[in-house]
Amino acid sequence: MQHRQMDPKISVSIVFVAAMFMSIMDGTIVNVALPAIGQQFHAPGTSVDAIVVAYLVTLAVIIPVSGWLGDRLGTKRVFLCALALFSLASALCGLANSLGMLIAFRALQGIAGGALTPVGTTLLYRTFPPAQRVQVARILNIPTVLAPASGPIIGGLLVVKLSWHWVFYVNVPIGIAACIFGALYLQELREPSTDHFDFTGFILAGLGLSLAMYALSEGPDLGWAAPVIIITGIAGIISLIAFVIIELRTEQPMLDLRLLSNRLFTSCNLVSFFSGSGFLGVLYAAPLFLQEARGVSALTSGLTTFPEAIGVIIATQFAARIYPTLGPRRLMLAGLSLVAVMMILLSFIDATTNLWFMRIMIFFIGVGMANIFLPAQTAAFANISSQATGQASALYNTQRQVGAALGVAILSSVISGIGATYLDSHNVTLPNYTAYHAAFITAAGLIIIAGAFALLVRDKDAAATMRRVIKKTNPQQVAQQSIATEAG
């Protein structure tokens, strides 16, 4: 049949972008609806926050096991099942008639979302050969940056024009269309896998990551000295330490931590971790500054931060073209330098600053992040074999989730620690701009840390992904390099 003859690179790209856009946008679009949900169910803010926490915790439990599931059952099968479950859970969230029911269905969404991103990334990297990995990074950037930026705008419109239920319903038609398309056109990709399931590793990783994510997400609100935060945080760290020790001694681990002995893979993960922390921390702090300190509407706030996505999408096209010439190291350092400068400039905005100044800064932060996201994602998998891609993808996506939570937790703590407001001499509550300035400078500090790890990246280690470099060699060298790359 004709539909089975579609180029697998096209089909996997279409399904991946649709599924990831839906999944990633869900994280930001729901935040906009929290006040309306709390009002309907007569629940305080702390109770409504459980809607977000439940999703993050269950997401963290599934990500580590996603690599084993994809290899064991097939990446297409696991991806489509996760996509179908996410769509079903979204519909159930919209139909929920109590807060407890909504929290339970959000947890179900998290289970599906935890498998979607890593397994989808594995599909991409097993479909595209190393020399075309820069194209994969361009595909990854579309949902990664467009979805978080558009979420608040779409969510605000849906809540105002329709109701909070529609922030969940909007996922359903996208999910159904992506499932049908994927069932028709995706090819099944499966690597040799052991039947052994590392139950101990699964329990320790799931327990450690879920507790750590809970502590990071709730720490700024409940206070880092709160007993529940201290207990969950310490228990999470202990579980993760035990997980690392046991996995390194296990012959068939659930997550192959030995992949971290690959210097290029580890360096790119660390760049992604700290740059993602700073970037997503700013995406959290900027709307807070706009709505709480400047007093603008949620829609104006969303439109002010949206230029970030435009910057990333535009700059990604140029970054993909110059990547083979400049290599990942210089490209990342240039991007990190630009982002750090823009974040420092954000610390000068106050009540009288024209919002277009902020929009310009946000736009150039997006430009800089494109030159970090693309080379880091491309180079990280340069020396990872097809067989190890599932495990590597699970590791990469785990650090991205933890990094995002860490960035938000750090900047939130800085703002609350300094105080988002203060009383003037007349006992009038005023916004404390110093708190937000400190948060933006802190984000710049995280970007600078990422720059230190970018210095450890060697372009020659990522040669397999630098297409123009490979083209200059003779056919025999190309064949030898390809064999060496696939062998890991």
Fold blueprint:
Blueprint: H1 8-41, H2 45-48, H3 50-73, H4 75-95, H5 99-127, H6 133-161, H7 166-169, H8 171-185, H9 199-222, H10 227-249, H11 263-293, H12 298-305, H13 307-346, H14 355-380, H15 389-418, E1 421-423, E2 429-431, H16 433-454, H17 467-471, H18 475-486
Describe the protein in words.
It is a single chain. The protein has 488 residues and is an all-alpha fold. Helix content is 78%, strand content 1%. Strands 1-2 form a two-stranded antiparallel ribbon. The chain is globular.
CATH topology-level fold name of the largest domain: Growth Hormone, Chain: A
Pattern of helices and strands: HHHHHHHHHHHHHHHEEHHH
Question: Numbering strands along the chain, what is their spatial order in the largest sheet?
Answer: 1-2
Strand fraction band? under 5%
Could you report the average pLDDT, rounded to the nearest whole number?
A: 80
Largest sheet: 2 strands, antiparallel
Nearest-angstrom radius of gyration?
22 Å
